TrEMBL record:
<keyword id="KW-0812">Transmembrane</keyword>
<keyword id="KW-0472">Membrane</keyword>
<dbReference type="InterPro" id="IPR000253">
    <property type="entry name" value="FHA_dom"/>
</dbReference>
<protein>
    <submittedName>
        <fullName>Protein containg FOG: FHA domain</fullName>
    </submittedName>
</protein>
<feature type="domain" description="FHA">
    <location>
        <begin position="67"/>
        <end position="116"/>
    </location>
</feature>
<feature type="transmembrane region" description="Helical">
    <location>
        <begin position="7"/>
        <end position="29"/>
    </location>
</feature>
<dbReference type="InterPro" id="IPR008984">
    <property type="entry name" value="SMAD_FHA_dom_sf"/>
</dbReference>
<dbReference type="InterPro" id="IPR050923">
    <property type="entry name" value="Cell_Proc_Reg/RNA_Proc"/>
</dbReference>
<keyword id="KW-1133">Transmembrane helix</keyword>
<dbReference type="Pfam" id="PF00498">
    <property type="entry name" value="FHA"/>
</dbReference>
Length: 143
């Protein structure tokens, strides 16, 4: 009689362990799926900067969270214009919006002919002026 009780307890223990293992794997899978959805919702909308320079239009598309505009060839978006500082302005993606910030340039940065003193939100269709160079901003949101 006690052999049956021990066998029954072993079966209950084995089933309990398998149920716990399945529950733990399901919980991990559910958390992984939620984290994946959260990361994909954080994708940065592409930023397209267009510059008309010497009768040539320069279009560049950026998907990184920070773009530096300036005369220095090492910047992300170099502009060959003497009125543009080496590191003139920064565009960064923060809190689901693109922001423009002047990097203490000599001639200043302007957003739609308004001087940029502190970081400001940029929308698609805005014109950023660095020195005499005007850059058209387009933001490509994924639908």
């Amino acid at each position: 009689m006690s052999a049956f009780i021990v066998l029954f307890l072993r079966l209950v223990l084995a089933i309990s362990l398998y149920v716990f293992l399945i529950w733990a794997l399901y919980t991990l899978w559910r958390d992984f799926r939620a984290q994946t959805q959260l990361v994909t919702s954080r994708e940065i909308p592409a930023l397209v900067l267009a510059l008309d320079q010497d009768e040539i239009t320069i279009d560049e598309k950026f998907t990184q969270p920070e773009v530096i505009i300036g005369r220095d060839p090492a910047t992300t978006f170099p502009i060959n214009d003497e009125t543009v500082s080496a590191h003139h302005a920064r565009m960064s993606y923060y809190k689901k919006q693109w922001w423009l910030e002047d990097l203490h340039s000599t001639n200043g940065s302007f957003l739609n002919d308004e001087r940029v003193i502190s970081p400001v939100v940029v929308t698609s269709g805005d014109i950023v002026r660095c020195g005499q160079a005007e850059v058209l901003v387009t933001i490509l949101y994924k639908s």
